[in-house]
Amino acid sequence: xxxxxxxxxxxxxxxxxxxxxxxxxxxxxxxxxxxxxxxxxxxxxxxxxxxxxxxxxxxxxxxxxxxxxxxxxxxxxxxxxxxxxxxxxxxxxxxxxxxxxxxxxxxxxxxxxxxxxxxxxxxxxxxxxxxxxxxxxxxxxxxxxxxxxxxxxxxxxxxxxxxxxxxxxxxxxxxxxxxxxxxxxxxxxxxxxxxxxxxxxxxxxxxxxxxxxxxxxxxxxxxxxxxxxxxxxxxxxxxxxxxxxxxxxxxxxxxxxxxxxxxxxxxxxxxxxxxxxxxxxxxxxxxxxxxxxxxxxxxxxxxxxxxxxxxxxxxxxxxxxxxxxxxxxxxxxxxxxxxxxxxxxxxxxxxxxxxxxxxxxxxxxxxxxxxxxxxxxxxxxxxxxxxxxxxxxxxxxxxxxxxxxxxxxxxxxxxxxxxxxxxxxxxxxxxxxxxxxxxxxxxxxxxxxxxxxxxxxxxxxxxxxxxxxxxxxxxxxxxxxxxxxxxxxxxxxxxxxxxxxxxxxxxxxxxxxxxxxxxxxxxxxxxxxxxxxxxxxxxxxxxxxxxxxxxxxxxxxxxxxxxxxxxxxxxxxxxxxxxxxxxxxxxxxxxxxxxxxxxxxxxxxxxxxxxxxxxxxxxxxxxxxxxxxxxxxxxxxxxxxxxxxxxxxxxxxxxxxxxxxxxxxxxxxxxxxxxxxxxxxxxxxxxxxxxxxxxxxxxxxxxxxxxxxxxxxxxxxxxxxxxxxxxxxxxxxxxxxxxxxxxxxxxxxxxxxxxxxxxxxxxxxxxxxxxxxxxxxxxxxxxxxxxxxxxxxxxxxxxxxxxxxxxxxxxxxxxxxxxxxxxxxxxxxxxxxxxxxxxxxxxxxxxxxxxxxxxxxxxxxxxxxxxxxxxxxxxxxxxxxxxxxxxxxxxxxxxxxxxxxxxxxxxxxxxxxxxxxxxxxxxxxxxxxxxxxxxxxxxxxxxxxxxxxxxxxxxxxxxxxxxxxxxxxxxxxxxxxxxxxxxxxxxxxxxxxxxxxxxxxxxxxxxxxxxxxxxxxxxxxxxx
Length: 1024
Known about the structure:
The chain is an alpha+beta fold. The strands form five sheets. The protein has a six-stranded mixed sheet. A six-stranded antiparallel sheet has the order 10-11-12-16-17-18. A three-stranded antiparallel sheet has the order 9-20-19. The longest helix is centred in the middle third of the chain and has 43 residues, at 633-675. The chain is elongated and about 115 Å long. The chain starts with a helix and ends in a 17-residue tail after the last helix. Residues 1-5, 22-32, 51-61, 125-130, 379-389 and 947-1024 have low confidence and may be disordered.
């Protein structure tokens, strides 16, 4: 209570002081500049006060290592329980009730000796109902070894039993008990890693908070070693046949009393593995029985609509079914598919009695698998789901899901993550798409500011110059995004990586500098604002600008393949309220700056308005949980300080060194051209300009032909400058005109001319003639600027080095913000993919707003410190604005936008991709696992992915011996082909090789593969 009162008093005191200071500033007058300064100071005071108030709260004690493991285990249990219970509700697993699949114990040779299994304990007498699925947890817990193998024929329902075991074990779990987690064994390569290493890797990959490293172990490995994990290994038969014996040896060698296990496998595959090797030591083995016809009939009739006589469409069909149909009804998979397909009242299950159309069980199974997706997306299915008429036609949905199914299995994860969708595009588009989006976001602000902002941002002289400039920025961004950014968030970003980034930046900048030297050498001293710019210079300047932005983002650690972000305040009770208060203060500051500056401080006001609005909106959401626990504002501020220091040092060093390199290279070309020019005599006339040389070596030129000249002004410059009439240069106003001759000479290192026009304030005074020198005939310009080679190079280097210092100041702010607020989202306990997408969007906008706000504050300080009309011009504002806008395209949310557009334009996915995936989830084709989507049935995925083949044909199945092992080692390219089947595009490595072909022709066993249960029954209910 005392701390709460202290925080309240501190906040009230800060607010009162801020209001008092603001009242004094407004009442005392002093002009708009003084008022704006006071408002900015008050805003900064309130913002710092809010952060300090929150900082007073002490951080929670993290406890001992055992406590951390216990909390992680409890969070994992919560995530697994939420995941499977939500899917069970969605699929209607208990509507009206699961299929009652019984099991029986199996002895040697498929199991170990009874006394080894029971360790001398007496086998209890079986009770009525002991061999029902809901008693599987009791059976497992009664085993001394805690090892259980579940066998069954294809489609018998082994995975549904495993899922029900997970839910049942979680329901009975007490703190300190192991957490059951389902692992599909298809992704394990026993030749490359041990079972424990693979379990820890998969656990850390699929439940990201467990990837946190303490010492030399991840939290996932700590849970595994501490006996807090109960692996449920699903699909032993999905491993290649030759590996079965080796896998059994691994299991017997690595399992102990602290690592229990439940394993599922096909009966025949287990028989072959045991015959070739050994049994799973001390493990109980049970076998699922096929469904009997009465159970299947009762289930289907209970899920169908009865007529007035109590009969359903299934009653006459199953009263005396033909042999093919009776055989199919022994498979829980086919029973639940039959319910889905014929849940549409427009279809009559009586067609299954047609032995001419369905002569074998294989033909019936193929029919049910093929009709599953169209039936799920039919009108009746939509109405059953409460969604009205379907948005997507069944044929289109079937086509898109076929493309999806062909690729999901190739990644080894069997999961679809929305943030991996951009990897479906060709490699060039994965770079070009975000670059174009960043360009559009920046242009949306810069172009209006350039046209309407009265000089706050340099305007382009013509439309072609605008196009060339943005083409250069696009090229620089493309190179930077491809070569300067880290590949992933886990990529090391130490000093070695920074050196590599600097070398790549220098190499690219050297190419641009050579282009400058060849096309537009800096003969006159360089200037970055209010200067006559040739067309090639617009393009080359844009290239430099794109490289600079990419370099700052690379130093800040923004990866090429970002993960979803969470809101940093998600774990703080008062965090959203603090953010809303901060947003309100910033918004008020923007309004005050705009009003009291008499509309002259447009960019600072707009930045405050935009940042405040985004912070207000972001503060309205708490968002998904973050992968890291909330540690308080103190940790955020420390992260910001570290990022600020790193960013300032790295960006300054790289900016200054690369700027000096560009200046030296371009200046060397200019010096060569100046020193190699033909000598000219004083008094010589070149294209209407007479050359003059004084006794002390001074040079000047005078026009001998009467021409029209303008005196123009520009906001941000304290003095006007002279140009030729019609010159292609942006200006705010024309102060006067003059027709006649004039002389260009040098005063104190600057090129000047005496204005002879009738402008009252400037008549007879020297004005800037820099742009007149640039407009001289080339020979006259070269003669006029003749000087020592070293002076030429130094003149070229100066502005670029000054720009490097500016880059360091702005890049430091950006790095500090991005590193402090880079909080990954907890994809393991996420409510769903759409929720993580919205949270990432809000976090991206908030982070960009804060970065732009702080960078803007730094720029305002630099603007006030630099003299008006300096060599940097308006470059600080242009960099400042784009630091916030361009980074939007580098988030997971931003990168998804060009991918969705490309998929839709190529006809390989609907425009509303996420809505389509969510609809497929609602209709039972896909399931959600945290922030991921998965196919509800592995067998359904295989059927959609396979090419049409004759029913009953032969071919390698998922468990066949000739299927090659698929290594599951992580690598820099892992997951990049996730959606290649949707788009038919090249992956990150290029076009897919023949080794990644779709699954082979399905056999009848494949069609009944029990892993169809991997994700549960269709949404209308049933069990597998």
